[in-house]
Specification:
The structure holds 2 protein chains of 2 kinds. Chain A is an alpha+beta fold. Helices cover 36% and strands 25% of the residues of chain A. The interface between A and B is large, with 40 and 48 residues.
Chain lengths: 307, 161
C-alpha cells in the first residue's frame, strides 16, 4: 500500500457521516450510567454509615495534631479574624479552626468554624449550638478522612490533589442565618460541593428546606414543577445545556426535590435551590442552581424568609 | 483516585471523542443504526466502569478498547455478516476509489481493521494499539504489516491503472 492510498483511506474515514442523533445517543449512554451509579452510591451510603463512623473517629484523632486553634491574639490571627463576616446578635461564628496538610503535591486546607447561637435574652442556646457544631464537625471530619485516605492510597507515588473547604455567612437577616460551605476538590479536574446550614432566628432552630414553609403544606410539587420548567427552557435555549429530564426512561430523570434539598435565600430574598454535581445533570454542568420565583410558593412560605 | 473525579474525566474524554468512537464503530459494522447502538453502549460501559481506570493517561486507550470489544460483541451476537460486499475483480481499478475506498478494509479481519484504523486514522502509536488489543507491540507490528499487504492487493496504485 502506498502513501496515496493511506491518505485516501484516511480521508474517507474522516468523511464518514456523523448522524445528527449521535450526540443524543452519547448523552443517553452517559445518563443511563450516571443514574445507575447514583442509585448505587445511595445504597452504599446507607449501608456504609457504621463503617464510616469508625474510620472517621480514627482520622479525627490523627487530624487533631494538625489543627490550629485560632486564639484571639497575634497579628496574623487578628487579620484572619477580621475576615470573619459580621453577624447579627443571635447567631455568630465565634472562632474557627483550620486543618492544613501538605504531602507530595497533595494539599488540604479546611476551615472549620464554630457557631454560637444565642437566645434573645443573650443566653446561649445550647441545643442548637451543639447541634450545628456537631454537624459541621462530622461534615469536615468526613472531608479530612477522605483526604487522608487518598494520601495513604497514593503512598509515595505522585498524587496531585488539592482539597479546600471554605465557609461564608450568606444570609443574616431578621429571620434567617445561613452559613455556606464550599468544598473544592481539584485533581485532574475539579469537583465542587455545596453544603449550607440554616438557623431560623425566630425559633433558634437549625432548619432544612421544610423549615421555611408552613406546617403540612406541599411545597415540593410547585418547586419541582418550576425547576423542571426552567430546565426545559434552558435546554431549549442552549444545546450545550443538559439536564436529566424527559429521557426515554423516566426513572433516570429529575423527579422532585426533597425536604433536605440544599437551598439558600439570595440577596434579593429569593429562594435558590442548589444541586451538587451529578445530581440532576452530567458532571460537565457542574453544580447547578435554580432561583424560584416567590409567586410559586407565596401562599406556602412562612413570613419573613422570602421577598 | 476518587471515583467522581475519574468519572468526570472519562465523561470529558467521551464528550471530546465520541465522533471518533462512532467512526471506529462504523468501520466494523458499516451501517449507521448499528454504529449508533455500539457508541451508546460503549459510552454507558465507560462511565459506569470509570472507577476501573487507574491512571488518567490510560483513559483514551481504555475507551478504544471498550468500543472495539463492544463492536466485536455486537457482531458476534447479531451473527450476521455486516455489509461485506465482494470485490468485483473485473471492475475498473478506480471504481472502488470513487465510491468507497474504505470498502477495502472489508478484506481485513476485525483485529486487522482495529490496528489499521487506530494506526492510520486515529494516529495511535504501536504501543498504544498494543494496550488497546492487549497484545505486545511486536504482534501489533506483525498484524499491521500483514494488513497493509492485504490492502495493497485490493488497492492497486492509481498510476498503474
Amino acid at each position: 500500500m502506498n502513501e496515496e492510498n493511506v491518505t485516501k483511506l484516511k480521508e474517507e474515514y474522516e468523511n464518514i457521516k456523523i448522524p445528527a442523533s449521535l450526540r443524543q445517543r452519547v448523552e443517553a449512554g452517559i445518563r443511563q450510567a450516571e443514574m445507575e451509579r447514583s442509585e448505587h452510591m445511595n445504597e452504599k451510603k446507607k449501608s456504609g454509615v457504621m463503617v464510616y463512623v469508625g474510620r472517621a473517629a480514627g482520622a479525627a484523632a490523627a487530624a487533631l495534631l494538625l489543627i490550629t486553634v485560632m486564639a484571639n491574639s497575634g497579628a496574623g490571627i487578628a487579620h484572619a479574624m477580621s475576615k470573619i463576616p459580621v453577624i447579627g446578635a443571635i447567631a455568630e461564628v465565634v472562632t474557627f479552626r483550620q486543618y492544613e496538610s501538605s504531602n507530595n503535591n497533595m494539599d488540604a486546607n479546611i476551615k472549620i468554624p464554630e457557631v454560637s447561637v444565642k437566645n434573645e435574652d443573650g443566653t446561649v442556646n445550647e441545643e442548637t449550638t451543639q447541634k450545628i457544631n456537631k454537624s459541621i464537625q462530622e461534615y469536615t471530619d468526613e472531608i479530612i478522612a477522605q483526604y487522608e485516605a487518598d494520601v495513604a492510597a497514593a503512598g509515595d507515588g505522585e498524587g496531585h490533589m488539592d482539597v479546600s473547604l471554605d465557609y461564608s455567612v450568606i444570609t443574616d437577616n431578621e429571620r434567617l442565618f445561613s452559613i455556606r460551605f464550599d468544598e473544592l476538590l481539584i485533581m485532574a479536574s475539579g469537583t465542587q460541593m455545596v453544603k449550607i446550614y440554616h438557623i431560623d432566628k425566630q425559633t433558634g432552630e437549625l432548619i432544612g428546606l421544610s423549615g421555611l414553609f408552613k406546617d403540612g403544606v406541599d411545597f415540593i410539587t410547585p418547586i419541582s414543577e418550576n425547576i423542571r420548567q426552567q430546565m426545559k427552557e434552558q435546554m431549549a435555549a442552549d444545546e450545550s445545556v443538559m439536564y436529566f429530564l424527559d429521557s426515554d426512561v423516566p426513572e433516570w430523570d429529575f423527579q422532585a426535590i426533597t425536604e433536605d434539598t440544599t437551598f439558600y435565600v439570595n440577596e434579593n430574598g429569593k429562594l435558590v435551590i442548589v444541586f451538587n454535581e451529578y445530581e440532576v445533570a452530567p458532571g460537565y454542568m457542574g453544580s447547578v442552581e435554580f432561583e424560584i420565583p416567590t409567586e410559586v410558593v407565596q401562599d406556602l412560605v412562612q413570613d419573613g424568609f422570602l421577598k | 483516585m476518587r471515583t467522581d473525579i475519574i468519572q468526570k474525566k472519562v465523561e470529558e474524554t467521551v464528550l471530546s471523542s465520541y465522533e471518533a468512537m462512532y467512526r471506529l464503530a462504523y468501520t466494523y459494522v458499516r451501517n449507521e443504526a448499528d454504529a449508533l447502538d455500539i457508541v451508546q453502549e460503549s459510552v454507558y460501559k465507560a462511565i459506569k466502569n470509570a472507577s476501573g481506570v487507574k491512571k488518567e493517561t490510560h483513559i483514551k486507550t481504555w475507551l478504544w478498547r471498550i468500543v472495539m470489544n463492544t463492536a466485536l460483541d455486537f457482531i458476534r451476537k447479531n451473527k450476521r455478516e455486516i455489509a461485506v460486499e465482494s470485490f468485483d475483480e473485473t471492475g475498473k481499478e478506480d471504481c472502488y476509489q470513487d465510491f468507497d475506498t474504505l470498502q477495502a478494509l472489508q478484506v481485513l479481519t476485525q483485529q486487522e481493521k482495529t490496528v489499521v484504523a487506530l494506526r492510520f486514522f486515529e494516529d495511535l502509536k504501536l504501543n498504544e494499539i498494543a494496550a488497546v488489543l492487549g497484545e505486545n507491540a511486536n504482534t501489533v507490528k506483525t498484524i499491521l504489516y500483514r494488513s497493509l499487504k492485504k490492502l495493497k492487493a485490493v488497492l492497486k496504485p492509481t498510476e498503474g491503472a
